[in-house]
Amino acid sequence: MRIIGLTGGIGMGKSTAAAAFRRARIPVFDADLAVHRLQAKGGRAVKLIEAAFPGTTSQGAIDRPALRAAVFGDPSALTRLEHILHPMVEAEERAFVARARRAGQRAVVLDIPLLFETTGESRVDTVVVVSAPRAIQVHRVAQRRRMTRADVEAVIARQMPDAEKRRRADLVVRTGLSRAHTLQALRRFIRTLRA
Length: 195
Description:
195 residues; alpha/beta; five-stranded parallel beta sheet; two-stranded antiparallel ribbon; 9 helices
């Protein structure tokens, strides 16, 4: 079974790419969704995060703005949070891959925003990076998240540079031209998975 790592910076088009893989009936593991489940009411990470960052829960779930405030601008706090979440997300990822293997899937996609930052490329066969020009990226994020340009730039600055991700990719899918162009490139890649 071929394991595809899908990554790219915020606003680069990972959701569009993941949806294309799902439409092609290729199972997709969504690391962000796994984090949301772990932090939701009854999630396995809630008590551990509250113990590490008191006051960051509300009604049995993580209060995301409170947690963001607790770790924003504090690299050591962010590292503590990552030490709680990353092993749990990786355990869910391993279970997902094992289920797909037992089901006889020919390929799976691991949609992981921090693929390179968490050395996730060592767990995949092929890395697909989605990429768009900076101006388009900033516009998409500002629109979707209702953030100021300064806030968007701050988020982007904390991520691995797009040029470095593209350099380390096996395949770069350009998402800044048109949706049709992006989907055409993804369909070509999906055909190679089925060949």
